[in-house]
């Protein structure tokens, strides 16, 4: 018992424990990659679980670190998979990057260089910022010849680094030189995920690999706006009149999703549909569920985590 409240249910999820979890939560925050889908393949049972929670009057919000798409593009992806989700229910790290600049009064005369894809570019433009880089710079090459001088735009006031399948040496140098030589240039990372489910078949290098390359080249740590940073939660709380104690973060990563829930005071539910974890080697006290759908099926043998006690290490 903590703070005079009964400990959240752990271990085998009984009907009573499932009812207690649902009754204690007004909003479920879902990660997407590895929880809702893998690549473009929907994870089995997700539509039924979402429908049940909506019928029970629960608010569903989708919080993803994947910056490749904008909220508009993600809404289209949900629809293509047969799920009706509005833009207002989607919070991406690309959106968080744009809002960070907006809330911090980024000068309108300054530009943003993007190491990333269309999702970041679209969110920045919607927020009113002029940006350059992105996928088109994926076709640019560098020849390291004698006396070669790399030109860059000296009006760039921020570099945003996210997941980028077109990442190359040109982009790395452009980001490095802007951060190093443009006075006051911000270094912003959408997230530091080492891997992600870019396809349904396997995991791929995540945004964290691009961020690490740029960070190493400038010898500087970025401002991280995606999970597990609490920055996204500020927008959730402004958008929905809810208390964090009445929210449950559902995800497949301990170091982002679950830590995000911990950092912001949410209940947490870890699902194993996305990543292969040697769970008990990492933290032997953690319980879990196999997938989103199993969390609501009390006839299955499953385990439920509604809060991780103590600090994740």
UniProtKB/TrEMBL annotation:
It comes from the Eukaryota. Mg(2+) binds at residues 31, 33, 252. SUPFAM superfamilies: HAD-like (SSF56784). Its EC number is 3.1.3.18. One of its GO terms (molecular function) is phosphoglycolate phosphatase activity. The keyword Signal does not apply. Its main location: plastid. Substrate binds at residue 227. Its cofactor is Mg(2+). Photorespiratory enzyme that dephosphorylates the 2-phosphoglycolate produced by the RuBisCO oxygenation reaction. Belongs to the HAD-like hydrolase superfamily. CbbY/CbbZ/Gph/YieH family. This is Phosphoglycolate phosphatase.
């Amino acid at each position: 018992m903590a703070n005079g409240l009964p400990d959240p249910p752990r271990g085998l999820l009984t009907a009573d424990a499932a009812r207690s979890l649902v009754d204690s939560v007004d909003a479920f925050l879902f990660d997407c990659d590895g929880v809702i889908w893998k690549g473009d393949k929907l994870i089995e049972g997700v539509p039924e679980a979402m429908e049940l929670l909506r019928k029970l009057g629960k608010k569903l919000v989708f919080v993803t670190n994947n910056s490749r798409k904008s909220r508009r593009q993600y809404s289209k992806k949900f629809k293509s998979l047969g799920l009706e989700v509005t833009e207002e229910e989607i919070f991406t790290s690309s959106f968080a990057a744009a809002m960070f600049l907006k809330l911090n009064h980024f000068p309108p005369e300054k530009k943003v260089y993007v190491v990333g894809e269309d999702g970041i570019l679209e969110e920045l433009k919607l927020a009113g910022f002029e940006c350059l880089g992105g996928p088109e710079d994926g076709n640019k090459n560098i020849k390291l010849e004698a006396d070669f001088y790399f030109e860059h735009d000296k009006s760039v006031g921020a570099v945003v680094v996210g997941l980028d399948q077109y990442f190359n040496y040109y982009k790395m140098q452009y980001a490095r030189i802007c951060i190093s030589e443009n006075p006051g240039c911000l270094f912003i990372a959408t997230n530091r995920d080492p891997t992600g489910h870019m396809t349904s078949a396997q995991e791929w290098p995540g945004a964290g690999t691009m961020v690490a390359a740029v960070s190493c080249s400038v010898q500087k740590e970025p401002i991280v706006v995606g999970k597990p940073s609490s920055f996204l939660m500020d927008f959730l709380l402004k958008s929905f009149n809810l208390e964090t104690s009445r929210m449950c973060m559902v995800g497949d990563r301990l170091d982002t999703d679950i830590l995000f829930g911990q950092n912001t005071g949410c209940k947490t539910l870890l699902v194993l549909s996305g990543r292969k974890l040697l769970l008990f080697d990492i933290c032997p006290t953690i319980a879990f569920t196999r997938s989103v759908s199993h969390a609501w099926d009390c006839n299955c043998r499953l385990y439920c985590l509604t809060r991780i006690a103590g600090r994740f290490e």
